[in-house]
Amino acid sequence: MSPKNELRLPAIEVRQGPEHLLYTFAVDGKVIPSFSTVSRIHRNGDKQIEGYQRPEVLSHIAEIRNYLDSDAPMIPNAIVIAFDSRVRFECTVDPTNPTPYTRIGVIVIPVDDDVAPEEKPGFIVDGQQRIAAIRDAEVESFPICVTAFITNDIQEQTEQFILVNSTKPLPKGLIYELLPGTSATLPTLLERRRFPAHLLDLLNNDEDSAMKGRIQTPTNPGGSIKDNSILKMLENSLSDGVLYRFRYVEGGPGDVDSMMAVLKNFWRAVSRVFPDAWQLPPRQSRLVHGAGIIGMGFLMDAISERLRKARVVSETQFVEDLQPLKDVCRWTDGYWDFGPGRQRKWNEIQNTTKDIQLLANYLLVQYKSLVWNREPRLSTVASLSQQNMFD
Q1: Are residues 252 and 327 in the same domain?
Q2: H helix and E strand count, the chain
Q3: Same domain as 200, residue 127
Q4: Residue 79 placed within a domain
Q5: Which of 7, 166, 192, 217 lies 20 to 30 Å from 98, alpha-carbon distance?
Q6: Confidence (pLDDT) at 340
Q7: pLDDT value at position 378?
């Protein structure tokens, strides 16, 4: 380290495409915490997502540490670090360089032991557990390979984190919560869930949402409604239900304001019609259980179809259409009557494809019988109950 508190490390610059530069170098893993930190996912005072890492997995770190303390450890895969613009690359002239996409030089990293972790120039995108294990291992030093890129854009750091970890056993909830803050092209599954994840984020954080703080995510572990249930409900409606009407507008992915108006009006109505069941946790209420959330989502679509002359169904109208179902729903006690010989205790409904379909069809048939029959149009609800909407 130089007297100016800089690390100067031999490095190779690699150009990928017209815009991206990567830097490959080796450094003692014990030193990495002096210039890099982990940006753990959290929300700031404005409820905006910040950071992108998962908490340390202590058992995984212990396994790696024990390996490092063995006779001949080797970690061949590089960690990935995102640097801000305080880090620079100095090229050294090398006329023998045979490739147009590489340059040989030195990467210069400022080091200041007095700054807070979040003020360090590097953020660990991939390799958190390995760095923690090296930090704790009973070895004097352990050089490790690093692949780095330089950007001040937190969105680019987040996108790289998602892409690096999308094929690994990373908690899906963590990735889904990060998706709304990205815009890069992602694998198909993640691309399909990015917009529903944005709607989920609004439902969980908007002040006028009945679901505010109720959806369990990595930054809201105290929530009781599973994020995956909400995502499935949203995906179903975006694909075939009321939200599909607002899915595409010129210059954007959809009319988010209208979508959120429908969602907020419906779930506020649900909380009013079934107040006791709404406040309980899933183990005590099937309304906020995965099967209930997804099944009620189909009911939201059916009510909106019956009242499609109203572009956005009001909360009052949702309440009026839900009220007749109050006497036939068994969210917290009693038995569901699914037909002759098909009675099920309220808590026997599970979050399985078969039970979700059973409950959703029941809700739709009851709605057709108690409400929709006041008007002549029945085909849509009938077709909804017959489709295989649960793949």
Answers
A1: yes
A2: 12, 14
A3: no
A4: yes
A5: 7
A6: 86
A7: 39
> Does residue 149 sit in the same domain as residue 199?
no
Integer Cα distance of 254 and 37 in angstroms? 37
- The confidence score (pLDDT) of residue 223 equals 92
Instruction: Print the domain residue range for 287.
Output: 173-386
- The token duo for 10 is 């031999």
Q: Does the CA dihedral 45-48-51-53 come out positive or negative?
A: positive
**pLDDT at residue 266, as a whole number:** 98
Q: How many whole angstroms separate alpha carbon 8 and alpha carbon 67?
A: 29
Is the sign of the CA dihedral 312, 389, 171, 37 positive or negative? negative
What pLDDT is stored for residue 172 in this prediction? Answer: 67
Whether 113 and 243 share a structural domain: no
Cα–Cα distance between 178 and 100 in angstroms, integer? 36
C-alpha 230/C-alpha 237 separation (Å) is 11
Counting Cα atoms < 13 Å in the Cβ hemisphere of 116 gives 3
As a whole number of angstroms, the longest Cα–Cα distance in the chain is 85
Task: Look at strands 20-28 and 143-150 and give their pairing.
Answer: antiparallel
| DSSP label of 252 | B
- Whether residue 352 sits in one domain with residue 372: yes
Give residue for tokens 């092209």: 185
CA distances from 159 to 117, 147, 300, 355 (A): 21, 16, 33, 36
**Spans of the chain, pLDDT less than 70:** 1-4, 39-57, 94-96, 157, 161-175, 178, 181-190, 249-253, 374-391
Give dist(CA 347, CA 86) in Å, integer: 57
Q: What's the CA gap between 151 and 95, in Å, rounded? A: 29
Cα–Cα dist 347/144, whole Å: 52
